[in-house]
Amino acid sequence: MLFGHEKIEILHLPTPLEHLENVSKDLGIDVWCKRDDLTNLATGGNKLRKLEYFLKDALDQGATMLITEGGAQTNHGRLTAAVASKYGLRSAIITADEYPGEISANLLLDGMLGCDVHFVKDMESGRQKVIDKYTAEGEKVYYVPMGGSNELGILGYAECAMELDKQAREAGIPEAVIYVTIGSMATYVGLLIGLKECGSKLRLVGVNVLPYGEAGREDEELLKALEGYCEKINKFYGRDFGITRDDFIFTTAYIHGAYNNAVEEVRDVLYYLARKEAIIIDPCYTGKTFEAIVDGAKKGAIPKGSHVIFMHTGGLPGIYTKHHRVELEKELMPYMHIEDH
User: CATH assignment of 47-148, given 3.30.565.10, 3.40.50.1100, 3.40.50.720, 3.40.190.10?
Assistant: First the structure.
């Protein structure tokens, strides 16, 4: 139980904290990887830690169906569907994206898991229509917010922070800096709260991948959103977790102009990590976060000898999304040696 809330134990925890020896030698910094991509349902990912708590709440309420929303290729939607399948519930994903013209990547896995995907024109009205449809069919619907990002959703990564603090101390890097993606914010904020709660010496840097606000005001808009999120969390739990504006350390330098866009610099670090450590990261979330580490080391923003922990939050199916896949295929074609027969 954490902060008064129980969970259904789905995962094989703790996930490993691995030393990236080859990358460390190459970059001149001490790089470790928290392998939350190795969580054990439907190719894994960070959302499963949050879903342990959502599942408990859903089952306590007698739910027969989980519904969530996100982009057409939402990792969170795929893992919500996975949890539903594992525990005998129906599932559906609502997206305002257009149908991409093919069933690939997460959409392919959604279908394999028996999850309905609804492409709607307007999310606000579409969400209610979809929920009403299944309610009329006799389902008790439990709605999981986009990205698992609400007051309950922070619990999975508050718990992870405590797990990681113990691992870091055992590894002899108690004051390392954690680099983690900021998307829907629950992973970043959960880690921040968990580190604060256990008195950890680990520090946290968020790498934002979602544009917030007007050009030139991204940092201020993200800061306001994070503060608002923490205010809601304090109110929900009836306590002050002690998070102040100074605790929010992040960068918006690796958005590259848009969310989930195909970017050459990000693909370069995908190849780099694969060829140095045989670890696969995705072009939307973890690729941009790992780029921040590589770029920071090369430019001296991360001092030589620093201890860094890369939070690998999963997202493997993202490399099979069409607009990323076509660029990867073009660049990797030289590795294909095809003989005439």
Answer: 3.40.50.1100
36-51 confidence digits (pLDDT tens): 999 999 999 999 999 9
Q: Per residue in 112-128, pLDDT tens?
A: 999 999 999 999 999 99
- Confidence class for position 214, pLDDT limits 50, 70, 90: confident
Residues of the chain with CATH 3.40.50.1100: 17-44+150-332, 47-148
What's the 3-state SS for the chain?
A: CECCECCCCCCCCCCCEEECHHHHHHHCCEEEEEEHHHCCCCCCECHHHHHHHHHHHHHHCCCCEEEEECCCCCHHHHHHHHHHHHCCCEEEEEECCCCCCCCCHHHHHHHHCCCEEEECCCHHHHHHHHHHHHHHCCCCEEECCHHHCCCCCCHHHHHHHHHHHHHHHHCCCCCCEEEEEECCCHHHHHHHHHHHHCCCCCEEEEEECCCCCCCCCHHHHHHHHHHHHHHHHHHHHCCCCCCCHHHCCEECCCCCCCCCCCCHHHHHHHHHHHHHHCCCCCCCCHHHHHHHHHHHHHHCCCCCCCEEEEEECECHHHHHCHHHHHHHHHHHHHHCCCCCC
Confidence at 212, pLDDT banded by 50, 70, 90: confident
Fold of 17-44+150-332: Rossmann fold (3.40.50)
Whether 158 has a pLDDT exceeding 90, the answer reads yes
